[in-house]
């Protein structure tokens, strides 16, 4: 899922090839939609307070004032070695999707908070996520700290359904499959 911009320079007079691969600084925003319920990740009330709940909600049209509650920017973390990790940032609040403290308890709620910093939160891996493609257009989203997956409680399509961390495998568990779709023009 990282977005890269590559360039190549070749001289006819030499055999020198130069490649540079740089990460774009501003990836396009996305909506994140559940395969099971067809609802989107939604920052409850668009609140910017730490540990604001993330819930499932029916898709808002881009003309709706609450649309930005459902728009997220996926940002690569270049410092990670050995695997690709990302932060998921809400467009309205600028807060980061997290599994607080990397809690590995099944059913522990997913929230958003300001970016973690300081010696007591080294790495803040509970705000970092990995993406694993399961089938065309759908991914599992795994928290780096807990290794639990982003999961919609019981696969419910009810507005306000809890988004939680839940143990899983690299399988087709439909409560844990998510599509990333380019956000509308108002994002």
TrEMBL record:
One Pfam family cited in the UniProt record for this chain: RicinB_lectin_2
Q: Return the PROSITE patterns for the record.
A: RICIN_B_LECTIN
InterPro entries registered for this protein in UniProt? Ricin_B-like_lectins, Ricin_B_lectin
Q: Which residues form the Ricin B lectin domain?
A: 18-107, 126-186
Q: Which domain of life is it from?
A: Eukaryota
Q: What is this protein called?
A: Ricin-type beta-trefoil lectin domain-containing protein
Q: In which organism is this protein found? A: Favolaschia claudopus
